Amino acid sequence: MINRKTILQPSLSEENLKKLNEILKQALDIPEGEERAHWITNIISEQDNEILDSIKFRSLLLLLRDLFLQGWDLKIEDKTVSIHHPETPENMEKKQWFREALFYERNKQLESDSFKKFIFRMERYKKYKGKVVSIKSLTAPVNRLLSTIQEQKGDAIRPYLQIVQSSTDRDEHTGYRLLDIWRYFRLTWTLPHKPTPGRNIFVLVRDSAQEYHPVIGIAALGSSIVQITCRDNEIGWTIESLRERLQNMDELSAQQVVNGLSHSIERSILEIQSRDLINEDINLLNVNEYINDLNEFLESESDTVAEAPKITSNINNADWDNVCRGLFYKKKRAKTLLKLFKAQDFFNHLNLNEPQESLQQLVQTSRGRSALSVALQSNKKEKVGANMMDIIVCGAVPPYNFLLGGKLTALLMMSPQIIRAYEEKYRNQVSVIASAMKGEPVIKPAQLVFLGTTSLYESGSSQYNRLYIPSHAINSSEPPNKIGYQSLGLTKGFGTVYISDETVESFSELTTKIHGRRIVSNTFGEGTSPRMRLIRAGLDALGLPSEHLLNHSFKRIVYGIKLAENAYEYLRGEEDRPDYYLWQNTPVQTTEEICGFWRERWLSMRIENHRVIQQLSYFNIDNFLLGNKLNGN
Question: How does pLDDT run across 175-215, given as a tens digit for each residue?
């Protein structure tokens, strides 16, 4: 159960604490929400941003402004100041309240000069190949769409996938960059758009039945979030999940699991450069001496601060040996190897000829669980950044939302075209962290076998719920009864979406001032979720409890898609090759089959619904365009 109250005891100077208390007392006389937030904003503009305590004070005011905008309450009792998680207002669904809470940051984003210039450029008419076009040309004209539906019924829409291969790819019908088309339609959504570091695949779903091939929907894949407990349980990356599997495991499968775990540790050790830490070739059967050497090194360097190196050149040409030998990665290698050697030492004492007995020792003893945890994490690190992705954007563009274009877009994420595009883009991609740890370029197999995503709301997702492709609708060698989105559980309700970019930047200035360097950047390879880590660091610097403040309590449903029959076994390192459900040698044909299933299952039903057709006929593109939402228009 979430703690609804957070005591506000920031680490400020006595002078600024008194000033804060006066401000908060005055804030109690101002109506909650937007008015209180705007009042705080006026005070923020008056603050000095040079002295450390002043930066702290400004950062705290920015944070309070964000929280007040999201409906957080303020109370002062017996001179103790506390802020309280928002309660859903009466006569309003939690889903509706959360949606409205997201609008502020999205709208503020659109008001920036760079976004305004981009929006007006995309909406301004221009000539291309003798025709006058704008972004409006890429939304289906309702009258023509209705006419096509009336004439052709279920064949009225002819979807196809268009995957953005590079930032310079352009649309043949309008001349716009494909990435700009994707970006424009993404900005029309409620949730603010936050670029994510790491691997990305951007996707457009187009309709060839209409002039200019208007956009039906957009989607994007991003690097998977490393820690999602319910997903990791499902895959088998947790001790709890292994304990459950043990109950129905025979000797052969137990042997497969033990071998997979043992090999994960061995591979991880051999993928880390150790010759400057251990002055001999590694003997995995005798690691005790290495453990002592690493402990001595880490103890001698315990007080030394090492900054993560900036890789300024192209990662394919980086001097990885030099990066690896720098103190930052040397300490990182030593810490990682120390854990691996301790786990290896435990595995050395297991009787691997008795795999079920070995697994029992791993899950039932404290040292065994420690070794098991290291093995599972080693396997997970090897796979999570290379063989799975998250669907971070997926939905329809009006007016196709009336015709369940969002379900079509979600279904097409399972197409072999997506798998092939991912492999083509990343099969020669150098892994930053792995290369820095090994001292030479490391390329991981880019075989995509699992997709994850979450609903926007706890109540579920009408787009993903019960969404699947039945075996009779796909051309596959040995398909299951159906493949699709499986509900795996709920997130824990942590997030940063309501913390504004301005506040995050202030936290960055604050932590830089304290440490004398930028401790968190948006550079891929530095670690997971830079935004979350930066906010945590900022809250810690203010002396505030991050666990309370980042727990927004809006849990989301976690969905997973197995793209291969042996996806989990492959991800656990128990099998070497994925056995894909859908044939990979005819990707475009399979995409057409998925589109055919969508037309039969959902489109045909929608176009026969008079209420839906009426709603579609009322759609006005001018009300949808972003330019009309700017400057009060």
Answer: 999 999 999 999 998 777 777 778 999 999 999 999 999 99
pLDDT tens digits along 291-323: 998 999 999 988 787 777 877 667 888 899 999
Q: Contact at 8 Å (CB) between 577 and 570?
A: yes
Q: φ, ψ for residue 399 (rounded to 5)? A: -90, 10
Given a cut of 80, is residue 88 above it in pLDDT? no
Instruction: Give CA–CA dist 170/155, Å, rounded.
Output: 27
Q: Tell me the HSE value of 316 on the side-chain side, using a 13 A CA sphere.
A: 4
Confidence of residue 77 (pLDDT cuts 50, 70, 90): confident
User: In degrees rounded to 5, what are phi and psi of residue 430?
Assistant: -75, 130
Distance CA 65, CA 52 (A): 20
Which pTM value belongs to this model? 0.86
Residue 162 dihedral angles phi and psi, to the nearest 5°: -130, 110
Residue 319 C-alpha from the chain's centroid: 29
163: CB partners within 8 A, 6+ apart: 201, 202, 203, 204, 417, 418, 421
Asked whether 201 and 425 are in contact (CB, 8 A), the reply is yes
pLDDT range class, residue 237, cuts 50, 70, 90: very high
Helix 113-123 to helix 178-186 angle (10° resolution) is 110
Q: Which residues of 544-570 are buried (b: 16+ CB within 10 A; e: fewer)?
A: bebebbbbbbbbbbbbbbbbbbbbbbb
Please state, as a whole number, how many other Cβ atoms lie within 10 Å of the Cβ of residue 249. Answer: 17
